Amino acid sequence: MPSSQFAHSERYRYMNGFNSYHESEAVDGALPVGANSPQKPPYGLYAEKLSGTAFTAPRHENQQTWLYRILPSCGHSNFEPRESSTYNTNPENKPYEKIHHIPNQLRWDPFDLDETVDWVHSLHLVAGAGDPTMKTGIGMYIFAAGKDMDPHEAFYSADGDFLIVPQHGVLDIRTEMGRILVRPNEICVIPRGIKYRVTLPQGPVRGYILELYQGHFQLPELGPIGSNCLANARDFQAPVADFDEDTESEWHILCKFAGHLFQAKQTHTPFDVVAWHGLYYPYKYDLGRFNTMGSVSFDHPDPSIYTVLTAQSDHPGTAVADFVIFPPRWLVAEDTFRPPWYHRNTMSEFMGLIQGQYDAKTGGGFQPAGASLHNVMSGHGPDAATHEKASNVELKPNKVGEGSMAFMFESCLMVGVTEWGLKKCQKVQQDYNAESWEPLKPHFKRPTPKKIENGAGEVNEGVLGDKAQVPHWTS
Q1: DSSP 8-class letter at 428
Q2: Are 281 and 239 in contact (CB under 8 A)?
Q3: 380 marked ligand binding residue
């Protein structure tokens, strides 16, 4: 602490700050001064505006970036459907596939690595809610890839922002704005529409993705906590400008649009941005830098104190998506059951485990690269083994989660599970409830009744008309 110790060393430079106005140029003087779109931008570059929000969005929400590139993005052939019969991350559009809305608690064994596919083809929608065509809702994905993307391919999602959570392996991501290296215990956000290419410098990768169809991720409000703690803005990192000069090779631009895959061809690299400035860009964050809050007196606080990023609905305080982590932390609360309490929640909770063991699930069924889903109002909490241990352990200060990192995608929406997530992946644990909560035993003991003397003198059985009070029983 406060930074993770990574096995794979960093190879790129970054600019620091969340939602900060950044500017970067790979060639000195490539950024226009005092104007965004001069008649002739420096060095013969083209000015291109990338809008992540409506032009008229309130200033504090507005996200736009100006790119200065060798050729504009519009110079490509028509997009054509690609693999239209097999590639679909919006299965509600297929009559023979559907979203299953079920109240059962679900848990998955670790998802398999797949060394036969690249990043684009490794994406599997496990669960979700809403519709990307209406810019509402979320998608929850597993990725597991073993190959680099083709050297002349780039990908973007028109459907939403990708929040990427690696669990195994290293992602080397080349974006239009520059390069980002993402390792387990880091996250990366690539906003809607930004093109990128993924290579795998250490072999196969696996992890989780939360795609946000509406709005963008923000830091949560801190309220009484004050002006610092949780995820601090200075610890988010954005790439610096980095470009290629290639106007002859054929490139394929892959687009995820309404859950389907499209392809266009162009004779120039999409990674030709010489300079850029704005608020709309990819970024990464080291989860080891999260400053955890907790109780120093009694009771287990709500898990909202572990929120890294949030995307609010139109009702303040209610999130379409929260990204929450459970990092190593000290527990010191007195006379308190320290794991999370049993609860039913109006929010849906999808959990994953990056490494180690989650302190509320010590029975062995919740494993790294696995997942669980506790949908709206489905009861859950510590498994029986954890409850027994936590109910009897000596309450001294102790650190939990050493070497561990669990996380949660939380949403106010009722989450449906795809055919792949429920059946085809063959990872759902059929005995999740039986192992976790059915072994819980009742400990209730009715108190022994106590006779209350009320000073009435000698106690009689009492008959009709007695003046003396008759003793009563109470608990």
Answers
A1: B
A2: yes
A3: yes
Q: Is residue 227 part of a domain?
A: yes
Number of structural domains, the chain?
Answer: 2
Range of the domain at 280: 14-287
Tens of pLDDT along 71-119? Answer: 999 999 999 999 877 787 766 555 556 889 999 999 999 999 999 999 9
The CA distance from 318 to 131, in Å, is 19
Q: Measured at the alpha carbon of residue 314, what is the angle toward residues 380 and 289, in degrees to the nearest 5?
A: 60
Same domain, 99 and 155: yes
Is 161 within a domain? yes
Shared domain check, 198 and 99: yes
Weakest-pLDDT range from 232-246, 248-262, 271-285, 447-461: 447-461
Indicate whether 474 belongs to any domain.
Answer: no
C-alpha 54/C-alpha 58 separation (Å) is 9
Mean pLDDT of the 325-350 span: 94
**Which of 223, 217, 208, 212 has its CA nearest to residue 304?**
223
| CA distances (Å), origin 55, targets 15, 18, 51 | 25, 21, 7
Tell me the average pLDDT of the chain.
Answer: 92
**Does one domain contain both 309 and 252?**
no
Beta strand ranges found along 26-104 (DSSP E): 46-51, 64-69, 80-81, 99-100
Q: Would you say 358 is a known binding-site residue?
A: yes
Extract the tokens encoding 83: 């693999």
CA-nearest of 464, 375, 421 to 98 is 421
- Out of 198-202, 315-319, 327-331, 363-367, give the one with best mean pLDDT: 198-202
Structural tokens at position 136 = 């509402």
pTM: 0.93
Give every CB contact of residue 179 below 8 A, 6+ residues apart in sequence. 12, 172, 173, 239, 242
First vs last Cα of the chain: how many Å apart?
A: 52
pLDDT band, very low/low/confident/very high, at 2 (cuts 50, 70, 90): confident
Domain CATH for 117: 2.60.120.10
Residues belonging to the active site: 300
Gap between the Cα atoms of 30 and 49, Å rounded: 15
Report d(CA 254, CA 249) in Å as an integer. 16
349 is an annotated ligand-binding site residue: yes
